[in-house]
Amino acid sequence: MESFFGSIKTENLHHYQFKTRNSPKQVVFDYIEVFYNRVRRHAKIGNQIPADFAKQFYNQKQIAA
After folding, report:
1. What is the DSSP letter of 47?
2. Fewest CB within a 10 Å sphere: which of 5, 12, 21, 54?
3. pLDDT digit of tens for each residue in the chain (65 aa)?
4. What is the domain range of residue 35?
5. What's the rounded Cα separation, in Å, for the pair 49 and 44?
């Protein structure tokens, strides 16, 4: 979790100055759902995108069942 929070601060939040409380909520949501899960590659899962890794995982589970 510490690595994730460090990433979100460095890669995203430090680039904004928020005027309302809802603004950071939307920025964090967009970062996680759009960038972090669908674009950013993760070393822990073989430099794959998490969405692709999940597809492969569930396809293997369906084949094994």
Report:
1. S
2. 21
3. 788 888 888 888 888 888 888 888 988 998 888 887 778 888 888 888 888 888 888 888 777 76
4. 2-64
5. 10
